[in-house]
């Protein structure tokens, strides 16, 4: 059996006149952490939204866990989505629900016949895993940005996904919280054996979490490899400047 | 290319295009509601939660408005009736006005302002903060959870609120009539029930169902299609109220024609 979890070939996506993805190719292997880097508006988030069927490609192939996403029926797509965890940039916690209700929401709708005790156990276990057991009865508005991100990750983990997609996990957070989130991403992979794609423009996050970097420029991946292979001696001026702006050298 | 061609279109043509595209979108939204409402899974718990929010939380405002409407309408009608020495007809006049038109209309307009705007803003903010996307990627149908439940709740609760408003308005009217004409409670209500027919009640319930559906579906549609961040949320809430109120008046007019035609048979 192939260890490829995601296979993208010649993927195109545009919005009106704006061509965002122009022939993207990518392979993602089991239990790999891939970091997709690029400036704002280069289509990084679009790529992972196509992966979960929130957007549809114009043409090209997007195969996730051996299934072409664009050909799936709504029922098949939902079955696939249960295997993918999506951590949103702004956490996307349901702000009319407590942390417990936020975590219960996907669980009770997708796994039937769970007792209250089992649900509580699962929620508490995951809140422990992200280091926030005390927040269980709090509302999202009472949490800090970093706490919201952690709860967002815990909520996606509740369905035991095989693939984790992190959209800008460290955006808007202070450096210390960024490191905590990066550690959490690594812990999630180790503990739950997930395959991950991390979308970011934060090179510190990329370096800490990624096995492999993929730099998205002009709608295509222009560089791919380990951090050391892609940066710091990049020949492409744009990749080089991306590195220089992140790690300001004297 | 398509956008360039669109830019060259005259202003009026673009407006007409936008209007008909919006109309088609709205039609598809309503059609989707009717497709999804009968299909499992059924979100009964959320429907009850929304019924509670819509019904119970609207009660104070509806009570106050209904009571004031009853008093004011009675007070304003008295001089005209007394010119003909017909103040004894006040209970009949008030009951017909309240049950046939004012009760449903006042309740629906208040609900459009309170409930419609809150639905538009709530779903709109969920949309711009990606909460709807989060629901979708967790294999939950957000349309069913957010739209179907709210539309069902408004459709069920507005008729109940209308009956309550009718009752409160009639109590307000009774207090006024009792203070001025010394009419007893039993006489007042006997006169009321003699004046209103089964058709009046039936048409009032039918109208209320229609108003409730309109408030829910317009609020949800506007919220579900909001964009451009917080500005878009505000715009969604505002247009939910304006469009609901406009449609409520149109529906009132149409139902009135139908009921009058039935009454004339």
Automatic annotation (TrEMBL), chain A:
GO MF term list: ATP binding
Superkingdom of origin: Bacteria
Record-linked PROSITE patterns: ABC_TRANSPORTER_1, ABC_TRANSPORTER_2
Pfam family for this entry, one: ABC_tran
Alphabetical list of InterPro entries matching this protein: AAA+_ATPase, ABC_transporter-like_ATP-bd, ABC_transporter-like_CS, P-loop_NTPase
Gene3D superfamilies: P-loop containing nucleotide triphosphate hydrolases (3.40.50.300)
Domain ABC transporter span(s) in chain numbering: 6-243
Keywords: ATP-binding, Nucleotide-binding, Transport
Matches recorded under PANTHER family: PROTEIN TRIGALACTOSYLDIACYLGLYCEROL 3, CHLOROPLASTIC
The protein, known as: ATP-binding cassette domain-containing protein
UniProtKB/TrEMBL annotation, chain B:
Keyword Transmembrane attached: yes
InterPro entries in UniProt: Permease_MalE
Keyword vocabulary terms for this entry: Membrane, Transmembrane, Transmembrane helix
Highest taxon of source: Bacteria
Organism per entry: Algoriphagus kandeliae
Membrane-crossing segments per the record: 54-73, 93-112, 145-164, 205-224, 236-259
Signal peptide: none
GO cellular component terms, A-Z: ATP-binding cassette (ABC) transporter complex
Record's keyword annotation contains Oxidoreductase: no
A GO molecular-function descriptor: phospholipid transporter activity
Stated name of the protein: ABC transporter permease
């Amino acid at each position: 059996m192939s260890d490829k979890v995601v296979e993208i070939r010649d993927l195109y996506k545009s919005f009106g006149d704006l061509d965002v993805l122009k022939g993207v190719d990518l392979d993602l292997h089991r239990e790999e952490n891939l970091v997709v880097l690029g400036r704002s508006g280069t289509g990084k988030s679009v790529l992972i939204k196509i992966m979960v069927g929130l957007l549809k490609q114009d043409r090209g192939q997007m195969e996730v866990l051996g299934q072409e996403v664009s050909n799936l029926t709504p029922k098949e797509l939902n079955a696939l989505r249960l295997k993918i965890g999506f951590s949103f940039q702004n956490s996307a916690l349901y702000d009319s629900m407590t942390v417990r209700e936020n975590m219960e929401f996907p669980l009770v709708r997708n796994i039937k016949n769970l007792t209250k005790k089992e649900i509580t156990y699962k929620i508490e276990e995951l809140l422990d895993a992200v280091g926030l057991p005390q927040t269980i009865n709090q509302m999202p508005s009472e949490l800090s940005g970093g706490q919201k991100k952690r709860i967002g990750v815990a909520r996606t983990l509740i369905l035991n996904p095989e693939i984790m997609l992190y959209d800008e996990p460290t955006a808007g957070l202070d450096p210390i919280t960024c490191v905590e989130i990066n550690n959490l991403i690594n812990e999630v992979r180790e503990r739950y054996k997930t395959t991950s794609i991390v979308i970011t423009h934060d090179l510190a996050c990329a370096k800490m979490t990624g096995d492999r970097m993929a730099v998205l420029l002009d709608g295509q991946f222009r560089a791919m490899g380990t951090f050391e292979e892609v940066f710091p001696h990049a020949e492409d001026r744009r990749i080089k400047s991306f590195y220089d702006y992140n790690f300001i050298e004297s | 290319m398509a956008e360039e061609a669109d830019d060259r279109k005259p202003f009026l043509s673009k407006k007409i295009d936008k209007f008909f595209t919006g109309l088609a979108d709205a039609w598809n939204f309503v059609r989707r509601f009717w497709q999804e409402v009968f299909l499992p899974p059924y979100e009964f718990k959320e429907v009850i939660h929304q019924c509670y929010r819509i019904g119970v939380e609207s009660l104070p405002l509806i009570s106050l408005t209904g009571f004031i409407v009853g008093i004011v309408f009675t007070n304003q009608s008295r001089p005209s009736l007394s010119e003909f020495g017909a103040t004894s007809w006040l209970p009949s006049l008030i009951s017909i006005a309240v049950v046939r038109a004012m009760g449903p209309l006042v309740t629906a307009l208040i609900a459009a302002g309170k409930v419609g705007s809150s639905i538009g803003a709530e779903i709109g903010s969920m949309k711009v903060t990606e909460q709807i996307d989060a629901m979708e990627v967790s294999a939950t149908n957000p349309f069913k959870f957010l739209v179907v439940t709210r539309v069902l709740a408004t459709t069920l609760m507005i008729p109940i609120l209308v009956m309550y408003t009718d009752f409160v308005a009639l109590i307000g009217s009774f207090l006024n009539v009792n203070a001025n004409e010394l009419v007893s409670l039993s006489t007042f209500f006997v006169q009321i029930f003699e004046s209103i027919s089964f058709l009046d009640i039936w048409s009032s319930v039918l109208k209320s169902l229609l108003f409730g559906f309109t408030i829910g579906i317009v609020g949800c549609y506007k919220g579900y299609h909001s964009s451009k961040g917080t500005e878009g949320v505000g715009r969604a809430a505002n247009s939910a109220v304006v469009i609901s109120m406009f449609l409520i008046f149109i529906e009132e007019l149409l139902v009135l024609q139908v009921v009058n035609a039935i009454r004339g048979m």
